[in-house]
Amino acid sequence: MIQPLLERCSFPDGPVNCAVSGGADSMALLALASSAGLEVTAIHVDHGIRPGSSEEADIVAATAERFGAQFESRSVTVDAGPNLEERARQARYSVLPEKVLTGHTADDQAETILLALLRGSAWQGMGGIEPTTSRPILQLRRSETEDLCSSLGITTFSDPSNRDPQFRRNRIRHELLPLLCDIADRDLVPVLVRQSELFRDGSKFISEGAKQIDPTDTKALENAPRIISREAIRNWIWETRGDDHPPDLATINRVLDVAFLESLATDIGKGWRVARTDRVLRIEKPDSI
Predict the structure, then answer these.
(1) What pTM, to 2 d.p., does this model score?
(2) Are residues 145 and 24 located together in one domain of the fold?
């Protein structure tokens, strides 16, 4: 069963680090990477959110030993509060090595695209998870990772937070996506994955066009196709502010109003502004920076 799955994976060469939570996806990642003949280190991160979470590390350690992989356990502290899922993700990646392999699957890709749609994301967001060798099992389905673990007798741990409806991704996974599949009368995951490929191709084309114009030159913005001008403004603001997320469409459109001489300046969030002198735009930092 492993070989047909390996043929659809994209593992890099050389020693690899695998982020292994104990769920079926990451355990399958560990098994597949080891079966591919790679030198594997399984890294488990304990967020300290749930009591008894150290037991998950024991499960991962035992599985790593079974497949001849090294094992490391790392701990982070994530306090209760808003945006718990995102803060836990950031804390997890802060203690994981660069280019760590993750167990994202095609189902994760479909959920990510629906999340992006709900947020009103543009081309980049709708492109979903970028396929790289750091996500080697992105073409596999969640059902396949579960079947692999079951067939190999791998003990897995199901994180109860993965069913908590306070997290939007969980509602997409357990409510929205099944409903959409029912309405469409077919499995929509492959459809959404194909859509993400189209959006990524479109995004690359637009990004290349945006690199050809100066986002501070209002004349250049006016003469370019609107979608190229928006991309140039988006990247300019995003890179200048160093944010985790790019500006939204409403912000970009307000900046274009300034560029097209419909206003002199506009707020772009967190105290930052874009202003115009004659036909040149500039970004103004908040006083506190």
Answers:
(1) 0.85
(2) yes
